[in-house]
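Two proteins follow. First one:
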Amino acid sequence: MRAVLPIALLLAPAGAHIDREWFRQALIGETAHWRDAAATPSGFFQPSLDRQWRPVGEQTGTLVSQCRLLFVMATGYRVTREPGYLAALSQGADFLLAHFRDPEYGGWFWSVSPQGKVLDASKDSYGHAFVIFGLSHAAEVTGQERYRQAALETWAEMKAHLRDRAGFIKPRTTRDFNQVRGTNSQNPMMHLFEALLALHDATRSRAVLQDAHALVDAIFGKLFEVRGGYLPELYDADWKPLPAAQRGYLELGHQFEWAFLLSHAVEKGFPRRYLALGQGLLDYGMKVAYDPEAGGIFSRGDYQGGAVRGPKGWWEQAEFLRALMHYATLRKRADLWAPFDRSLEFVKRQFIDPDYGGWYGSYDPKTPTEGRRAYKGSVWMVGYHVSGMYAEALRLSRRR
């Protein structure tokens, strides 16, 4: 049951909670750090950065780091119109096309060196989803047809080579797509759904939108746990949720990420039944993941409705904040503003670096603060979640 809120809070506009100028400056700062520290003249994006945004160690580019940073550069350009973002975006997309593309079997190599040498030639569906996502944003911002076409071709290759007999997406295969590797997960398909929505924005293809519709129907028709109200993370070969004894768990941040994506799909014309699914996932996450004492959410949950009260990760907080402000503003969920306000203050205190900018990777009150301050970037932590949350705040502030 939702808490009964004071009438003044129920009537409070989004502007009382979303400080547009703060979010704008935060987004500009976030994207500028990544542009200045990660972009190189060749187009390779350096993902490994220390707390002061200096490159550290041996740099490896993955489909995820390269393509998430395409999104970050596109987002920076959209908010500032500065040509430096556009140059970094084009160079990064061209490096992707030149060095990650597999000319023999199709698809994309998982990782390469700064010089473009292939380090891991396997075909990863999570990475392919981000190729579609990153190139769709590059195409929309630059207007370059080659990026749009490459994104469409990638989706065609995924349908041809990375779908299994159940109609879901294989986690990873060998270079020739013949041998499956890894554990089945909903995660690549969630990001594929996000990528197809971006691809539709870039192409206005009705077929792409229909494919996105079919994908989400399959996921929530077969994988969603109706009685529990959640979406498990990992599955066996027959797409049954892995039991806890075999590493089965809930990624609590993904419940909020799905909630946002489903509501956003309804904005694009999807049936309103998806909004009911999104509301349900949001409510489940609030019940299980939200920490009302400190703010923010815990990262992992079990099948019995419990959360692991351990470290809180950066990306989970970003997805949580994005979902809360989205539903509070567009779906009139005023009960979400109080946890949003508390959690934003928690993030400002515990995640945002007051000295060098950007976010720390995690927060755990039981561990020394130095541990979470060791780095700003990795192949996974490259500004995508944070920039996406900030950009949604600006979008919502324009609509209120």
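Second one, unrelated to the first:
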Amino acid sequence: MSFQDKVLTCRDCGKEFLFTAGEQSFYAEKGFQHEPTRCRNCRATRKGGAGSGASGSDTGNRVLHPAVCSECGKETQVPFRPTAGKPVYCRECFQKRSSGGGGRPAGRRSPAYLD
């Protein structure tokens, strides 16, 4: 299925925002049936976030901890304190493992990442 960027109007602030082809693909992959009705800033405000910057990548007051990727050895930062004996992955390795399907023992939580 081919997606094209769409301009939507936020139901809270009335401003137009872009619903990108990539976001549409993500929504379809996750089985979401409705388009977003709020812009990134209004969603962040509604969720109680500190507000999102123009890029939407504001981490607020989150404390980041240094870590080394268990897969490739790259230095990275994660929003949790790494636990000895549990794997931590950089963004690229985490995405490879997530999209590869499986590979994780049953009952084990997925490791998080943040670059």
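SUMMARY FIELD: Residues 21-30 form the longest helix (10 residues). The first strand starts at residue 6 and ends at 9.
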